[in-house]
Amino acid sequence: MIEVKDISKNFGRKKVLKGVSFTANKGEITCLIGINGVGKTTIMNAIMNLTPIKSGEILIDGEKLSKKTFEKITFIPDAITMLPQMTIGEALQFMKDFYESWNSERANELLTFFRLKEEEKISSLSKGNTAKVNLLLGLALDVDYLLMDEPFTGIDIFSREQIAEVFTSHLVEDRGVIITTHEINDIEHLIDKVVLLDEGVVRKEFHTEEVRENEGKSVVDVMREVYKQ
Amino acid sequence: MKVTFNKRDPVYVQVVRHFKEQIATGNLEPGQEIPSRRELANQLKINPNTAQRAYKEMEEAGLIFTQGNSPSKITRDENIISSVREELILEAVEDFVSAIRPIKVPIEEVVGILKEKYNDDVFERRDKND
């Protein structure tokens, strides 16, 4: 379980996070929702210790962030971090050299699944295919937790469907996933849990099936209630 | 297998309903093997946890059974199968009745139109298939 406990963060005088708390379980897909600038990416950066926080605590499986916890988790940012002149094959090799948890078999499986060719240069890929390579680099690591920042933004509907399909497969099963998005429609059926953020605080945290079952509401219904108050 | 889900009913409930329809119409036969929860999640594009929940519900309701490590199968219990069919018919009729009642149409008129439409529909479907 990833536990985010009352974290705060300022950028200069601007308070970006004002005491954010939520949990994300292993084996579940947790979705952080909020409009742009609400602090979604900052939260992910904080979980990865890529940005210092002012106060609060983040625990992974009950442990504080350390060198060890980073073996359990990976972050897929919204833009690919490989050098553009590399080919896909070279990027895979780079990951293999760098990470012990790299799973070559799974990487090959994902190449086939996304219909990507190893010899293609990253700089020559379409936006959708770049997003797929980016996702592949994260998914092929044998880690318990995956953080994905806006995996659906700016790509065509068929690529989106293909990426959504990953969430229904063994590639993600049994892992804990946190994804951020502001387009919930495509993935409403796929996610277990939703954390609604607004102006640096969590407005609501709920399980999607429970809200459908007990209140007969869709995720968008709940969002409308929360954000239009 | 393709199912269009609505957004306000629990997905697992919609999956169970889909299976009930398949059982009632005989598309899924008694004793027939069904996909694993992972396969189902992938086919229906749903969360594996949801598929798991649907199977648990169906197992508890006796719609499917699992022996040891072999794949789950559709029940062979005739009573359960016929009650599924009855349940679906009743549900549909109740929906229809609650939709038509506020319009205050005499029942004879409803039955007449119903018969006409019901047959029309059959023919239309046949035409499309030809």
Summarize the structure.
The complex is a heterodimer of chains A (229) and B (130). Chain A is α/β, with parallel strands linked by helices and 229 residues long. Chain A is 31% helix and 27% strand.
Give a verbal description of the structure.
The complex is a heterodimer of chains A (229) and B (130). Chain A is an alpha/beta fold. Chain A folds into two domains: 1-72 and 144-153 and 175-229, 3-Layer(aba) Sandwich (Rossmann fold); 79-143, Helicase, Ruva Protein, domain 3 (Orthogonal Bundle). In chain A, 31% of the residues lie in helices and 27% in strands. Chain A is built from seven helices and ten strands. In chain A, the strands form two sheets. Chain A has a six-stranded mixed sheet with strand order 6-7-8-3-9-10, with helices on both faces. A four-stranded antiparallel sheet of chain A has the order 2-1-4-5, covered by helices on one side. Chain A is globular. The two termini of chain A are 31 Å apart. Chain B has two domains: 11-76, Arc Repressor Mutant, subunit A (Orthogonal Bundle); 80-129. Helix content of chain B is 62%, strand content 3%. Chain B has five helices and two strands, in the order αααββαα. Chain B has helices at residues 11-24, 37-44, 48-60, 78-100, 107-129; strands spanning 64-65, 73-74. In chain B, helix 1 crosses helix 3 (48-60) and helix 2 (37-44) crosses helix 3 (48-60). The A-B interface holds A 27-29, 164-165, 167-170, 173, 188-192, 209, 212-213, 216-221 and B 5, 7-13, 38, 41-42, 44-50, 53. Chain B: This is GntR family transcriptional regulator. Chain B: Residues 9-77 form the HTH gntR-type domain. Chain B: Keywords: DNA-binding, Transcription, Transcription regulation.
